[in-house]
Amino acid sequence: MVTRSLRQARQAARRHGERGFTLVEIIVVITIIALIMTLVGPRVLNYLTESKVKAAKIQIESLASALDLYFLDTGQYPSNAEGLNALVQRTGSSSGWSGPYLRGTVVPNDPWGRPYVYRTPGSQSSYDIISYGSDGQEGGSGVAADIISSAR
Q1: Helix-strand-coil percent breakdown of the chain, rounded to 5?
Q2: Domains of the chain, earliest start first
Q3: 65 against 104, higher pLDDT
């Protein structure tokens, strides 16, 4: 009987230790996770913002290629009034138009959800395609800097 009660006491002690974590253990784990997030979090957010800038540059180059195809077909770039929509919809003044020059029925917005700005003539060439960056305002620096592609 003594061995049986001793065995039961050991099993009870083992079960007691398997109940869960103490409050101190949980606080230590949460603190470690918080420290990791303070070190890793800003880097991850920086990669996300940098990827939006890269995506905007790629989209601008795609729009520039479509504008060049438009020019080859019509002999001119779309006017400021026609804008980039001339790449997906025929306008009245564009003889020789054989588009759409972009997939889909609408011109894509920049990665921040705002429309690209199209200007013709451009600052140093036939046209400019501009994204105002993360802040949506002209000028800026870093991820808020303007992204401009000009025709060569």
Answers
A1: 50, 5, 45
A2: 26-150 (3.30.700.10)
A3: 65
